[in-house]
Amino acid sequence: MRVDLFDFDLPAERIALRPARPRDAARLLVVDEGGMADHVVAELPAMLRPGDMLVFNDTRVIPAQLEGLRGEARIGATLHKRTGLRTWQAFLRNARRVRVGETIDFGHGVSATALDKAADGSVLLAFDGDEPVELLLERAGRMPLPPYIAQKRATDAADAEDYQTMFADAPGAVAAPTAALHFTPQLLAALDAAGIAHATLTLHVGAGTFLPVKAEDTDDHRMHAEWGRIDAATADRLNAVRSGGGRLIAVGTTSLRLLESAAGEDGIIRPFEGDTSIFITPGYRFRAIDGLMTNFHLPRSTLFMLVSALMGRERMQAAYAHAIESGYRFYSYGDSSLLMP
């Protein structure tokens, strides 16, 4: 399909630079067969049915943004995907000033050597020394805010908490699974009381999620790979919900992509561990999920293509037009939608 079919105009003032407080005070646009309705996230228990299950991503964002020097050249690095105990693919700012074999000094006793340059423009970095890389990043790194926020303001102390979900447990993401940022312990307790269960899986979100689609046709876009895991016990719980007549609602496109990667043609979700580069566009037949809670996405992005595949492109264009007209806040720190096909 033509990528320009997924374009829309978004006024800059609709991009949220801070989250709603409290988190579950964010607005929630419900889109289903009945049309569109405006709510707030705290009302979610009334939007679902007893026996339904919400599926969250428990990945934890690491301080994956680094600033350093190669000689006198300033180099910025955003870690993208872990490839080994001490190696990460990274997108570099000023990458032309770094050749294979050269070392970048990130300060605080942290340095890394460029091992290779990939076709997508990323660089394979090997962190020097024998300290765990996690400790090195805690010393030298900072929270990797999305580019559309980082271009407008600096990262600060509040982001260390704001850009982490209440489910964050497994370190490894370089971007938050932002749909879950709206949840609070109080909201989770209300969902439990309403008979709505929840489960977690792990997908380490990579910086590739922010890469623009440069191709003119979706068939020519190469999707980034991300590592995920669903264990056997979780797969059994998920399958039991659907076999019992409940619905699986993915909280975030990351949860959805992993669930769909783990499901067979029969709709059964199987244990999964490894990379997925699933690219969902209109025409895709969903196998694992019955609904999606997700924030509002960038024009021409793979994620707007995904929600268009779930709900229909024209319906999502109409929903986004309504959201823009009604003052919804967009992107990572913005408001949310509940999409029930």
Would you summarize the structure shown here?
The chain is of the alpha/beta class. Helix content is 22%, strand content 28%.
Provide structural commentary.
By secondary structure, the chain is an alpha/beta fold. It has two domains: 239 residues, QueA-like, CATH 3.40.1780.10; 75 residues, Thrombin, subunit H, CATH 2.40.10.240. Helix content is 22%, strand content 28%. The chain has nine helices and 17 strands. The strands form three sheets. Strands 2-1-17-16-14-3-12-13-15 form a nine-stranded mixed β-sheet, with helices on one face. It has a six-stranded antiparallel β-sheet with strand order 5-6-7-10-9-8, covered by helices on one side. A two-stranded parallel sheet has the order 4-11. The chain is globular, with a radius of gyration of 20 Å. The two termini are 21 Å apart. The mean pLDDT is 96. It holds the Pfam family Queuosine_synth. It comes from Sphingomonas quercus. This is S-adenosylmethionine:tRNA ribosyltransferase-isomerase. InterPro entries: QueA (IPR003699).
